[in-house]
Amino acid sequence: MSAQKIHVHPFERNWMIFSAIMLVLFATAVSVAAFGMGIQVPGPEQRVDPRTVATDPNSPWSSPGLREIVPGKKYDAYILAHALPTWEYLPKELTVPAGSSVTFYVTSSDVQHGFKIQNTNANFMVIPGQVSKLTIKFSKPGIYNYICTEYCGVGHGVMYGSITVTP
Ligand code: CUA
């Protein structure tokens, strides 16, 4: 008895090869983006209690704003989004010098909001109980507005702030 040969139609075989090549290409592209170019996906950084995050004196969001880590180079920005008592971000304005890396820690004390910084690739959800973290380098001077991108009530459209990057 001779061993049975599996017959694969050439058309089918070609698609199998094509699929395998595509998988390798995608895996390579994702690896290069993540490890080579340092492109990160914003992830939940820590959990907080949305009922006390804005008032607890130990919470950085009880005094939201900029923290200087390395003068002129590295900053942390604690930003609170809320719909009550009114739709806004705290703080509404930040100023950093050009060339700064700013790590944003954003959370909400009530409903779900969004956080998108125009002319950057920052665009993420702000979920009550979670902290969204992302680092952005501001190389060019200018004004970068941040806006809410998740519908959060009648004041959604007026929820914005701005980052001034000075030369
Ligand atoms: Cu906050 Cu929409």
Describe the structure.
This protein has 167 residues and is of the alpha+beta class. It folds into two domains: 40 residues; 107 residues, Immunoglobulin-like. The chain is 16% helix and 41% strand. The strands form two sheets. Strands 1, 2, 3, 4, 6 and 9 form a six-stranded mixed beta sheet that branches. Strands 5-11-10-7-8 form a five-stranded mixed beta sheet, with no helix packed on it. The longest helix is centred in the first third of the chain and has 27 residues. The relative contact order is 0.17. The model has no long low-confidence stretch (mean pLDDT 92).
Summarize the structure.
This protein has 167 residues and is an alpha+beta fold.
Structural class: alpha+beta
> Can you count the helices?
1
Average pLDDT metric: 92
DSSP E strands, number: 11
Q: Tell me the strand percentage band.
A: 35-45%
- The CATH homologous superfamily of the largest domain is named Cupredoxins -  blue copper proteins
CATH level 1 name of the largest domain: Mainly Beta
Coarse shape: elongated
Ligands bound to this protein structure: dinuclear copper ion
Terminal Cα span = 82 Å
**Which value, in Å, is the CA radius of gyration?**
23 Å
CATH architecture identity of the largest domain: Sandwich
Q: Helix and strand succession?
A: HEEEEEEEEEEE
Largest sheet: 6 strands, mixed
Protein topology:
Elements: H1 10-36, E1 43-47, E2 65-70, E3 74-82, E4 88-90, E5 93-97, E6 100-108, E7 113-117, E8 123-126, E9 130-138, E10 142-147, E11 160-166
Parallel strand pairs: 3-6, 5-11
Antiparallel strand pairs: 1-9, 2-3, 3-4, 6-9, 7-8, 7-10, 10-11
